[in-house]
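Hey all, quick one. A colleague (J.T.) asked me to put the phosphoribosyl ATP job into the tracker so the inputs and the structure tokens live in one place instead of scattered across chat threads. No bug as far as I know, just bookkeeping. Sequence used:
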Amino acid sequence: MLTIAVSKGRIYEEALPLLAEAGITPVDDPKTCRKLILQTTRDDVQLVIIRATDVPTFVEYGAADLGIAGKDVLLEHGAESLYEPLDLNIACCRLMTAAHKDAPEISGRIRVATKYVKTAQRYFASKGIQAEIIKLYGSMELAPLVGLADCIVDLVDTGNTLKANGLEPRDLIMNISSRLVVNKAAMKMKHEAIASLLAQFEQTLAQR
Ligand code: PRT
Ligand code: MG
């Protein structure tokens, strides 16, 4: 049995066609069904539906053999403990700094609100900018509006969320997409099954 960890939101939606090409279609829809383990049209494959940020943890500990996770999440988790063999090119967005549209260019010592603490720390250090990072779990856009931070580090897709809150994107930190990650022991123990799944995904991606 192969267990694949996926989050319920946009990654799930965009992964479905890719999984379907490999003959993997969930029997239940996680939007309407509360099951956390989904059987699929393949007897040898099941999905576990978890929070996006938990995917690397499940795969690292072997609770799932494979997982699909955003590069943003993998960077924060630290990915040394996982194999990351494939860029699936789904759920694409940009990790950016953003500030109030009237705020001056970033300089001096700044405060940054984000849920990407490690990534933000690394980024500002690489720029030689002294940044105090404030960890938030959501609604980052609010921080500059209420004086909690000078800027934020967050994911941007259309830019509508920033705009709706009077913010604007500033610097691109990294282009983000979702990656297939594999448990290191499973890669050895279930090599044949995993290698054939990888080959199938690669083929589908190449045809896109
Ligand atoms: O529970 P949680 O919401 O954390 O995750 P989830 O279980 O719903 O996971 P899921 O499947 O939604 O996956 C989240 C992953 O999708 C992230 O880790 C990214 O890799 C990827 N992704 C791609 C995004 C976005 N695009 C995105 N736009 N994740 C979040 N957003 C948010 C962003 O944080 C901001 O609030 O959308 C808003 C910005 O969007 P625009 O279009 O207004 O710019
Ligand atoms: Mg979500």
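Adding what we noticed when we looked at it: The first strand starts at residue 2 and ends at 7. Residues 7-12, 51-53, 70, 72-73, 91, 93, 154-161, 176, 178 surround phosphoribosyl ATP (ligand 1) (CB under 6 Å).
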